[in-house]
Amino acid sequence: MKLTQAQLAKYMDHTMLKPEATPEMIDKTVAEARKYNTASVCINPYWVKRVHEGLAGTDINTCTVIGFPLGATSTESKVFETKQAIEDGADEVDMVINIGELKAGNDDAVVADIKAVADATHEKGKILKVIIENALLTDEEKARASKLTVKGDADFVKTSTGFSTSGAKVEDVKIMREAVGPDFKIKAAGGIHSLQEAYDMIEAGANRLGVSASVQILEEAAQQ
């Protein structure tokens, strides 16, 4: 596989989710995204307004995270957080499922949680990605969570928060792709640090990559 730097950049959600992120770090992330024209900048909800303003005049989306990183907040809290983020300028929201309910086999609760956030997101014409946190799931649970994401009317299913025991794995992306079929979108996130790893995820079926090492990878792509 070989993509141009510009093509690869549009796969990337350029990410700065560190709890210690300062305004300067956020602004640097925005400047890098503008330089390379990534798909989005993904930050915690507090920074949405700042990033949205910083991306003015570009086609780069502002992406934020909901119920992050554990997914164990109430559905009502996730919906409120989503509505506030969109009001502040978010174009995309990445929510974490209720992992405990998934593992308990309470699929209806998982779908209801996703659907409530999907409705709040789509009401404003925005995009919802659903993080299933593969590191905590069996292969059966990964497939089931992916199917429940489709059932919940989301737009993407996402591998990881990047804050658990491991991030995206090629094998997991393949499981997710098989579960959701050829057309539903997948985001691979967490632990993608090289051009080859980015290509591996895309070849396995990822449509978007959550990456903090975007600059390094895109500079590597320019040297191909």
Automatic annotation (TrEMBL):
<dbReference type="InterPro" id="IPR011343">
    <property type="entry name" value="DeoC"/>
</dbReference>
<dbReference type="GO" id="GO:0005737">
    <property type="term" value="C:cytoplasm"/>
</dbReference>
<dbReference type="InterPro" id="IPR002915">
    <property type="entry name" value="DeoC/FbaB/LacD_aldolase"/>
</dbReference>
<keyword id="KW-0963">Cytoplasm</keyword>
<keyword id="KW-0456">Lyase</keyword>
<dbReference type="GO" id="GO:0006018">
    <property type="term" value="P:2-deoxyribose 1-phosphate catabolic process"/>
</dbReference>
<protein>
    <recommendedName>
        <fullName>Deoxyribose-phosphate aldolase</fullName>
        <ecNumber>4.1.2.4</ecNumber>
    </recommendedName>
</protein>
<comment type="pathway">
    <text>Carbohydrate degradation; 2-deoxy-D-ribose 1-phosphate degradation; D-glyceraldehyde 3-phosphate and acetaldehyde from 2-deoxy-alpha-D-ribose 1-phosphate: step 2/2.</text>
</comment>
<feature type="active site" description="Proton donor/acceptor">
    <location>
        <position position="187"/>
    </location>
</feature>
<dbReference type="InterPro" id="IPR028581">
    <property type="entry name" value="DeoC_typeI"/>
</dbReference>
<dbReference type="GO" id="GO:0004139">
    <property type="term" value="F:deoxyribose-phosphate aldolase activity"/>
</dbReference>
<keyword id="KW-0704">Schiff base</keyword>
<comment type="function">
    <text>Catalyzes a reversible aldol reaction between acetaldehyde and D-glyceraldehyde 3-phosphate to generate 2-deoxy-D-ribose 5-phosphate.</text>
</comment>
<feature type="active site" description="Schiff-base intermediate with acetaldehyde">
    <location>
        <position position="158"/>
    </location>
</feature>
<comment type="similarity">
    <text>Belongs to the DeoC/FbaB aldolase family. DeoC type 1 subfamily.</text>
</comment>
<dbReference type="InterPro" id="IPR013785">
    <property type="entry name" value="Aldolase_TIM"/>
</dbReference>
<dbReference type="GO" id="GO:0009264">
    <property type="term" value="P:deoxyribonucleotide catabolic process"/>
</dbReference>
<feature type="active site" description="Proton donor/acceptor">
    <location>
        <position position="94"/>
    </location>
</feature>
<dbReference type="GO" id="GO:0016052">
    <property type="term" value="P:carbohydrate catabolic process"/>
</dbReference>
<dbReference type="Pfam" id="PF01791">
    <property type="entry name" value="DeoC"/>
</dbReference>
